[in-house]
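Running this now, will post back.
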Amino acid sequence: MNTATTAESATAPVRFDTRIAVLLRDDLETWQRLNVTAFLVSGLGTTLPEVVGEPYEDADGVPYLPMFRQPVLVFEGAKETLADAHGRALTRALPRAVFTGDLFATGNDRDNRAAVRAVPTGELDLVGLAVYGPRNAVDKVLKGARMHP
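Update: finished.
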């Protein structure tokens, strides 16, 4: 084995065939953007074990929880952009998580699920959407959205 080739491959940038993306409505306050993003990605990490890497450990041997193995890209768009992206995610059957405006008024998981369940798909007041899948499929879902500043 060529050690130069091994060293080069160890330092080469990693390019993922998949993408984790969050789309936020552009009229949210800062605290809402952070809260929605955290909730949305938690759904992906708990359901899709392939997105989670290995546990961390510092030089003293203190263990830390594993995190996503790849970056999470955060986008923003208008209410219509979210509705369109949601429809495309459904059509492509991509794993997804939603956060609706109603969830800002609830305080627990049971009430969150009941709030989403009470509204038909086409009438959801989407403020956030997380999707995971092949890069090109996720890019198509996010058409019209822009990277979060």
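The mean pLDDT is 92. More later if anyone needs it.
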